[in-house]
Write a structure and sequence with these properties.
72 residues; alpha+beta; two-stranded antiparallel ribbon; 2 strands
Length: 72
C-alpha cells in the first residue's frame, strides 16, 4: 500500500501566455471563492492549497489548477 500523501503548493506562478487577471478569475471560479481571497494567494510567496492527497487526487487537482492557468 502506498502511504505517501501529497500537497498542492501555489507560488504565484502562472502558465506562460496567460494573463494574471484571467488566471485570478479562473481560480476564484475553481475554488468557489471571492476575488479578495485569490488576491491574498498572490501576495504570499507560497501557500498550501490542499494537503494530504493521494497521488491520483493530487494529479487531478494539479490538472484543474493548470487548466485555470496557474502553476502548482
Amino acid at each position: 500500500m502506498n502511504d505517501k500523501s501529497y500537497s498542492i503548493v501555489f507560488k504565484k506562478e502562472i502558465e506562460p501566455g496567460r494573463g494574471v487577471e484571467d488566471v485570478k478569475a479562473n481560480l476564484a471560479k475553481l475554488f468557489k471563492t471571492d476575488a479578495a481571497t485569490i488576491e491574498k494567494m498572490f501576495l504570499r510567496e507560497s501557500i498550501v492549497i490542499k494537503k494530504g492527497l493521494s497521488e491520483e487526487h493530487a494529479q487531478k487537482y494539479c490538472d484543474a489548477v493548470k487548466k485555470a492557468g496557474a502553476v502548482v
